Amino acid sequence: MIFIPPFAVKFGRRPVFIIAILDLFLCSIWSGGSTSIESFKWSRIFHGFGMAPFEALIVSTFGDRGFRSAIWGFALLAGINITPIANGYLVASPLGWKWCFWLVAIFFGLATILVVLFCPETAYDRSSVFDTDAGKPLADVSAINHATEELEKDALREPKPIIDHLENGATSQNGSSATYLPAKSVLQELAPYSGYRSKENFFKLVARPLPFFLSPAVWFAIFSYGLTTAWLVVLSVTSSVVFGSPPYNFDSIQTGLTSIGPLVASIPSTLIAGPLCDWSATYFARKNGGVFEPEFRLVLMIPMLLLEVFGFMGWSLMVENGHVPWIGPVIMYSMINVGQGIGSTAIVTYIIDVHRKHTPEAFAVVNLTKNSVLYGFTQFAVSWVTTMGVPHTMGVLAGVSAICILTTVPMYIYGKRIRSFVARHEALYLSVEKI
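RESULT FIELD:
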């Protein structure tokens, strides 16, 4: 996971995404055609290599920090909830469990075509003059505006009084050049490799994610985003025990259908999470005299805390009561998903704001830790639920989720000091740019 961002920074994201989606497609075919447990294990290992670039790089690829972040969060939740629905039917049907992977292979085949056609290279040698949200001098902004006006005049076929302004590049106060690169042709956009090659030292790029284990903001994301997502996956893995035991005694198909509620609930939460995140940032910036602080987005952690903790606790009490219909736990399950959808949008956008230049490295560390914890939990999750019982398990998850989400409090209070410390001690982060 942590070795993926260096390749993307050095050679661009497009070739990394294309190789990754091809890996997922081929390994799905390998898993479906496996005839031994050893072959199946190796297919799943290489499957993980293909998934790593998407977990590490997606959030740093899109520019919008509200709605698109919510869409990405919905995609993760939808993947968790759709899988049990489809697998419940496939496992119970004559087709058998292998068709779970054949079906995934079909979708990855379509995704491969979409990635090749609609995922252009987003990395290029960007002049620092364009970093207008990183405290650049007003003269830099003026240079960009001047160059933009010249381009607009050219598009409208109006006379350009200073024709060589764009040819030579608009120069800012610090000497940076605001030069616009020529547009690429369609064939150039479709090339697997654009020719981009970063001037950064590759070995330094390989080591760059490691210092982010020292970032308090990254550890906040590990607890509030990584681990809470892991609990949802654990819940999905153990759903056969939760709903297959008394008083419900559901079969595999019925157990899978319980995920319809969380899936449907995730849709409105996605639609409101992005606008809510942007609204909170704008509203509190106005209250703060027009000064934006990334911590303003963390207000959305309040509904996440309430929905997830009450969801797990409500589920525990309902099962312990023993006379609540199955719709009760499904509603609680849906509440947990809504809370996760809203909160994850705030956390993702917060990390993008804090580690703006190095989002891939930050999320590589977050997802590596999350996946390691998740792998460990899945080894004993079923036996854990069976031994402790569903009510106690849900109570424990409620408490653990509360602890993870409440890390927001010190981050909200000390977030600005932490960002200041990181900016003043760049050597800890291998001389990365100020955040």
